[in-house]
Design brief:
The protein is mostly helical. About 65% of the residues lie in helices and about 0% in strands. About 30% of the residues are buried.
Length: about 240
Amino acid sequence: MIALGNFLFGFRNALFPLVMVLLILMPGMPLFADPLTAGIAGTVIALSGQTVRAMTIGLQYIVRGGRHGRVYADDLVTGGVYNLCRNPMYVGNVLLVAGLALASNSLATLLCALVLAIVAYVAIVAAEEHYLRGKFDAAYEAYCNDVPRWLPRPGAMRGLLADTTFHWRRVILKEYGTPFAWIGILCLIVIYQLWRTGALEARWRIVQVLVAVLIVTATLWATARILKKTRRLVAD
């Protein structure tokens, strides 16, 4: 599992989007009679995943993006959302995958996407934990004993924001690409499903709204990227 996790960690940015596109195009039994209902349900789930990611980055960001395609961490971060569970970013990612799969309105896509995402992140976490145990030793073991791997303990979220600064600039700088990607993909999925089911013309106003959302999202992404590249917006 550790070897698989190291492999997936190194190639995840290329493999995950490709697999997700293939899964979305997979035919399957519809989950809802109306593809628009699937799109709304998928949006709610994906928004919850985005919220988890934004809260994680905004409260206490962890540098665990790897180095040269390998697992790497500068420090053992245990504050913010990392005080609730040890892998909040991956929890957010699974919710994003679930939201996009649900929007596809295909039971086969939803089941396959969830299974693949869970297996992939379990493997990646195994590789990361192996590395962190080797680097931080007893400190990491103590952290593992205190904080669950995936889901927070009941009542753990109380006081999360107390005496904690939320760094919204950091969220924009680190995260602006993620909402652009999943919102754009979700809009295209809904448009595709409307076309596939022959409802595109009847729901033309919905299509226009989705196209407008795509344009606004792309504009915000470009603005954030310009602000980042020109250093007009820096992390607080």
